[in-house]
Design brief:
Blueprint: H1 12-34, H2 43-108, H3 124-128, H4 131-134, H5 139-194, H6 199-221, H7 230-240, H8 259-269, H9 278-281, E1 286-288, E2 299-302, E3 308-314, E4 317-320, E5 329-332, E6 340-345
Antiparallel strand pairs: 1-6, 2-3, 2-6, 3-4, 4-5
Helix pairs in contact: 2-5, 7-8
Length: 346
């Protein structure tokens, strides 16, 4: 007779695990069903993110400008050193030719004295160190050897200096390339965000900025603020002549500018040379920490790292090249996006 066994019951622990998993699945399914679809960022949210990316791009731009300036300076220095080396080598060759003529003259008069053979060595230092030979040489011959010795040392030093500068140039070029990629990456991200806006939203942003620019221009022109000097007035007038010119990172004119490119170009038109980067321009004159003490044409610096600069236009307004996608324009100091740090009277 077959035996009838009761089916094996699942353990309490297994029942608990299965029950918990089922409950979790129900909750997750319910949450997924009730979750709101991801919302598209608003126009203002996109603008805030884009402005931040543009600020980061401008920070990288000033580093790029610094590396570019250093590269150009190194290239000029290396070129000068190489020209000096070539000239020095020619002079050294002429000195050696002169010694050769002395030796030839002695040979024709009865053979080369052993001491004269010292002249023809590629290493006169070795022979000059042998003081016992000096009394065998004429004053003219000793002077000639010493001149060759000094010229060789000079050339060796210049070649060493050129070698170090070439290494520095290579590192600077690498830094330049890195910063260029960083700028381009930030600008590309900003453009992708802008592309999420509708045509109407883009037009709204443009209209808002145009209204703000017209207000800033009106406020600046109505201000009764004297220029810091004749040169400051000339620099400011030069910047005014470029209103509407597009911002391009790394540009110094005459048709496009970045922030420090505009200020350095403007002062150059007034016959004043100031450094290329915003950070370096902070040392171009006397610092002024109160807005009320600023005069038209003073340089004005923003953000803690001083990566943005413009020209004071009066009544709390500036002329500057703001960022990619904009043009040289008037703008209130209150809307730059970073704190005013100080002004500089060139």
């Amino acid at each position: 007779m077959a035996s009838h066994r009761r089916p094996k019951q699942p353990s309490r622990a297994r029942v608990t695990v299965l029950t918990t998993a089922a409950a979790a699945a129900v909750v997750m399914s319910s949450q997924a069903a009730n979750a709101a679809p991801s919302e598209k960022p608003s126009k203002d949210e996109v603008k805030a993110k884009v402005d931040k990316l543009y600020e980061q791009a401008e920070q990288a731009t000033e580093k790029y400008n610094g590396a570019k300036e250093k590269q150009e300076k190194l290239q000029k220095e290396i070129s000068t050193i190489q020209d000096n080396v070539a000239k020095g080598q020619q002079e050294l060759n002429e000195l050696r030719d002169g010694l050769g003529s002395m030796a030839s003259a002695q040979y024709r008069s009865g053979g080369i004295d052993p001491s004269v053979q010292l002249f023809l060595s590629a290493d006169p230092d070795d022979y000059l160190d042998k003081a016992s030979t000096l009394d065998q040489l004429s004053t003219q011959q000793v002077d000639a050897l010493k001149e060759i010795q000094e010229k060789q040392r000079e050339l060796a030093q210049q070649r060493s200096e050129a070698s170090e500068k070439l290494k520095d140039l290579s590192a600077t070029r690498a830094e330049l390339g890195k910063k260029k990629k960083e700028v381009q990456g930030k600008l590309s991200s900003a453009q992708k965000l802008l592309n999420t806006l509708t045509a109407a939203e883009k037009q709204q942003l443009a209209d808002e900025q145009n209204r703000a620019t017209r207000t800033s221009e009106r406020d600046a022109l109505s201000a009764n603020v004297p220029a810091g000097s004749g040169r400051a007035a000339a620099a400011f007038a030069a910047a005014q002549s470029k209103l509407g010119s597009p911002y391009v990172y790394g540009a110094t004119g005459p048709s496009s500018y970045d922030c420090s490119g505009l200020t350095s170009w403007a002062y150059a038109q007034a016959g004043v040379g100031i450094p290329r980067t915003s950070e370096a321009q902070t040392g171009a004159g006397t610092k002024i920490y109160s807005v009320s003490q600023l005069k038209v044409g003073d340089l004005v610096f923003f953000f803690n790292d001083l990566h943005h600069v413009g020209l004071y236009a009066g009544n709390g307004q500036i002329i500057h090249a703001p960022r990619t996608g904009t043009v040289v324009r008037y703008e209130s100091m209150n809307t730059i996006g970073g704190p005013f740090m100080f002004g500089v009277r060139v």
